[in-house]
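Standup notes
- DV: blocked on the single-chain target, sequence here:
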Amino acid sequence: GGNTPTAIDDEAVTRIANVAFKKSDMIKKIVMVTSVGIERTSEMPFVILNLFGVLDAKKKGEEAVAAAATRGGFDYAIIRPGRLVGGPYTNPDVAKLLQVEGGAENGVSVSAGDSLLGDCKRDACAEAVVQALTNENCKNTVFSIIST
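- DV (later): unblocked, structure below
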């Protein structure tokens, strides 16, 4: 337990995925937000981000969601945003210190899998979640998003 990457991004997400599987008759789709870099943990800057296993734990959570959806017969979408920027400034990092807004007002880049690098405005990430939930064509997919 506790507030560790393993406890939150692996174990808690796996528990949620297992409940979704058990209630699969009530579930149409799960949308999960993780992070870019999950498939690039040996590359910079993701080596640093993964020093405490953050990306490894997120990957295990993703795998649990995909497996539960496949077994349960419901859809999933996994969104991998770049570093979240823009208010509210909750992360204790340079973006908070400098109040980084990031990107153009509405510009985003989207790519299948884990190939993008950059910042993602929180509102753009939230919009991606809504679109993933409501778009019939967004099913059983993993994509990255950054603000441009």
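- Follow-up: The radius of gyration is 15 Å.
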